[in-house]
Amino acid sequence: MLLTRASIKCSILVETMNKQEYIRNIIKYIQNDRMREESLRELSDHFEDRKQYYLNAGFEEEVAEEKTIACMGDAELIGTRIGKVHGKRLYVPLLLIEIVLGLTVCFFALILGALLWSEVLYEQTVLSECALLVFLFLFAYIGLRYRYKSILIIACIPLSLFLTFRVVLGWGHSYENALLVSGTVWETVYLVLGKFKMIYEIASRWRFVETSWWLQVLSVLFYAWIGFCVIAGMTFMVREDREKCSLRQKKMLKLIKRSVLALGACVLVSGLAFCAVYYTAAAAARESVLETYSGSVIYAKGINQNQPFNEMEEAFISDDTKSLTYYVEDISIESKDTIQLYGAGKDGEPVRRIEKKQFDNNIAYYTVIYEVNVKTTKDYMFFSNKGLKESFSQDKWLKVRKGEKYLIAFEEYEEYPLNFVEFTIQ
Amino acid sequence: MRYSKELVKGSTHLLVLAVLEKEDLYGYRICREIALRSQNELSMGEGTLYPIVHALEKEGYVESYWRECDGRNRKYYHITRKGLRRLKSLKEERIAFNKSIDKVLNFG
Asked: Residue A78 and residue B72: Cβ atoms within 8 Å?
């Protein structure tokens, strides 16, 4: 008989044990949290059934309980056997995999990142990498507690998120980002796909290569959805195991869980494919521009038509530099001495220069705006050669354009400006 | 008649899957069913039953669910298609094995 050894061993313990103690003695050998809880309920039910059998046979309650314990057998034996099936809570090899993955993330984020990224990007991305590390270990923890087979999915998703989040954050700085990942993924993608001009053309047609707010929003939503899928998938996984569900409910939960995970995987793959196309096209565009203009002086135009000054400025692309750089001469102000233009700029200069950095086809464009500070104690109007610009009562930084004449007029009389000053930004 | 432990050990999966073939059962009922069908010649203790059903569940041969029965929530086991296929192959294997044993015993 299967039970013989267990029955003999356990009969010794019967006198000193009640149901709670007996069941507790069994489950203490089960190291898997979820199974411990479930086994507790299952074995308690079993205990009650068997006890009921003895009660029906006419035994006293106390005797029935003792007989049940004797019949069920050695608690340690049952516990260790069940525990052996479900294994330990932590799987050491899988934990090692997680540690390796974590160290990989650390390497890219903190070492490689520090070498390659600009300061601003470094700050932004380090924060994101830290958040991703939390994600990584959170998912790993959940995975280690539950299904063995989930680990692979769980281990892959944070790494994918690591790459894609970096892309999202670097969207507005795609050139730097492309440089950053050139040694890892996108370089390979570019090498494989970048040779096909068609990809660039398609991407250009759909304006994938242009940076725009809606693309950024879309991309954030894109990856937020991935995050949702992962969390939802995990939730279903946990619910399916933990809750008391009917068979039909359980099957449905399993189906939903698989669908959500499959959907998440599809979105993830398509997201990565999207990024691959984007960067391939971007890299192709950059290559194209650099090939055309490398080593020569060109005239580039600010891309934002709403900027006040988008005249042609001299720009230069060097052989070794992969960005477009403006060289703007210092400017000075010439004015008739009727009004004083104060130096209220950062370093006391009367005129200040603002550089706006923008990206088009992954080429950095610097648009330069000049502002002049006008300080008076009187109300005045500001004229440009295009007519009335604005009316002010206090000192103000005014946007001016290089080489144009401006007029500042004071309204000493209501309709006719009598006092005025004309100046030119040289 | 009592059977040796070694003899029964190789048949535990077959026994559990066989009693689950017709209907879903919970742990205690599985024990009872085995005893009933074998006319009390076979019995399976908790130390054997639960590790087996849990292992079968882990391998996908059975799946469990909770259902209320007689005012109590019980964990029922249901044989899956994979489990049915496994049962079929175990049965075939057992029949072939018995035949082989018979051949040896009745030789000559």
From this structure: no
Alpha-carbon span A405 to A383, nearest angstrom:
9
Sign of the Cα pseudo-torsion (B100, B104, B106, B108, in order): positive
pTM over cut 0.80:
no
Predicted interface score ipTM higher than 0.90? no
Residue A45: list chain B partners with CB under 8 A.
Answer: 26-28, 72-75
Do the Cβ atoms of A245 and B58 come within 8 Å? no
> Rounded to 10 degrees, what is the CA torsion of A91, A92, A94, A99?
140
Chain B hits for A247, Cβ within 8 Å: 24, 63, 65, 67, 76, 78
| Both structure tokens of A268 | 């993830």
- Number of helical (H) and strand (E) elements in chain B, helices listed first: 5, 3
- The closest CB to that of A2, out of B27, B45, B58, belongs to B45
Q: For the segment B71-96, what is each residue's pLDDT rounded down to a tens digit? A: 788 889 999 999 999 999 999 999 99
d(CA B53, CA A259): 28
Q: Least CB-CB distance to A46: which of B9, B27, B44?
A: B27
What would the two tokens of residue A86 be?
């479900």
Q: Cβ distance A399 to A370 under 8 Å?
A: yes
